Amino acid sequence: MQTITLKSILDNTKSYQYVDNGEPMRGGMKDVYFSPDKSYVVAFYRKKLDFDGKELVRQLTTNYRKGIFDNPDGQYWKNIYCWPYDIVEKDGLTGIIVPTYEKHFFFKQGYASNDILKGKEKNGKWFASAKFRATNSKTKLDKSELGNWLSYFQVCVNIARGVKRLHSAGLAHSDLSYANVLIDPASGSANIIDIDGLVVPKKFYPTVIGTADFIAPEVLSTKHLDIKDPLRKLPERTTDLHALAVLIYMYLLYRHPLRGGNYFGQIDEVEEENFLMGSKALFVEHPTDSKNRNFKREYGENLEKFKPWTDLAKTPYTITGPYLKELFDQAFIKGLHNPIERPTADAWEQALIKTNDLKLECSNKQCEQKWFIYNNTKDTKCPFCNTKYNNTIPVLDLFYQFKPNVWKPENQRIVVYNNATLHKWHSNRNIIRNEKLIDKDKVSDGYFAFHNNKWVFVNQKLTSLKDVTEDKEIPIGSMVEITNGKKLLFSKEDGGRVAIITIANN
Question: Alpha carbon 267 to chain centroid distance?
C-alpha cells in the first residue's frame, strides 16, 4: 500500500493524493482510488483518452462546471451532482478528481435479513423494483432504508431538477439510469453521478449508447447502423427524457414501463430484447393495446409474491394522480417512438410538485407506503393496503385573476388533511417552488386542522386573507372555518389566488 501524490493539470499550485493498495474499485471505464482522508476520489480512465476525450474532461472540470456552480444557486447543485473538479495524469492515463458521496448514500443496514449490503452505495437500482420490498422476499430491504411512497416523489423531483439544469446548459447526460443515480429514500435525496460522459451537440459525442432498460427505443433500434449513418440515433437530450420518464415510473411503481409480456415468436434473447425495448417497445399499461400487459417475463411464477406492484388492476399508473398520468401518457404512448413529444424535465418537476398537493395519509398506521394520492372519487381508499380513508376531505381548487373580476382555473388543487400546510407557492402564482425559492418563501403561511369536529384554516402570515363568501377579513393569528362551497382569497397582491372549497368523502 502506498500514498501517491500528483500535480493538478489545471492548476500547478494544487496537488492530490490517493492510496494505492493494488485493488482499486472498478467502474465501467475507470479505476477509482480514495484520497487518504476519503474526502475525494481519483478516478483513472483505464484507456488513454484521445484529444476529444481529454478536451471534454477539461471543459467538464472548467467551463461547464463553472456554468453550473458559479451562480447564486450553485450550492444547491452540489447536492444534486457528483461533479469532477480537477484533472491529474499518471503514466499517460487521465484521472479526474471527484468528491466522495455523502454518508446518507451508503446503506446503514441494507437487507432486512442480513448485512451484506451494509456500507455499500445506495445505487438507484435497489429501490426501483418490487423484488426489494416484498415482505416474504430474501432481498427485501430494511424498513429504515425504504422510506415511504411520498419520499420517492422528492427523489424524483431532485432527479428531474438535475436533468433540467443540464439541459438548460446545453448538455445531456447520455447514460441516465438507476446505475448512475444514488438515492436515499429516507431523506428524499438523489445524486446524479458519472457526469464525465456528458454529450454536447455537435461538439462532444456519446461514447456509450446507455444502460439496458433506459436506452431510448430509437437508439436501440438503430444501433446496428454505422455511427456516421444519418439514420443512426445517438444519446442526446430527448433520450435523457426517455430515461428520466422510466426512472420516475420505476421509483413510483417499482416496475419497468416497457418490460412486460409481449411475445415475438421463437427468436434469440438479443433480438427479443431489441424488439421489447426498441422498435416494438410498448407501454405495459397502454390503454388500447394489451399485448405487453403482464410481468411473467420478469417475475415468472412469483407474480403473487410481488403484489400489488405486479397487479396492474390494483396499482395502475393512474394512482400517481392526474398530472403524472398525463405525462406518462405523453412519454410512453405519444413520445415512446416520437422523441419530440417527450415531456421536458421541467414538466416532470412541476407535475411532481403539484401531485404532492394531492397527498393523503393512509388511515392504516401499519401501511408501509403511508401516503397515497387522492383519486377524486366518492370511495377514497389507500390503493396499497385497501384501507378506506376515515375522514372528510376538503379540496381547494385554485383560481387566478385573468383580468379585473375575471378568475380562471389554475388546473391545480390542494387536498387537505389534518395539519397540512399552506405555502406562498400556493397562495401566489408568481412564487414558483423550485431550486431558486428563497428561504423566506419556504415558511408556511398557515395550516389546516380538524378542530372541534370541523375543518379550519389558521392564518399565520397572510396579510390580506379574506373569506369572500362571508365578505370578512381573516387577520393573522385567527382562523376561518372551511365549509363546502366557501371561497377564500389568499392574497390581494399581484398573483394572489382564490380557492373554492369542496368537502369530499362525506
Answer: 35
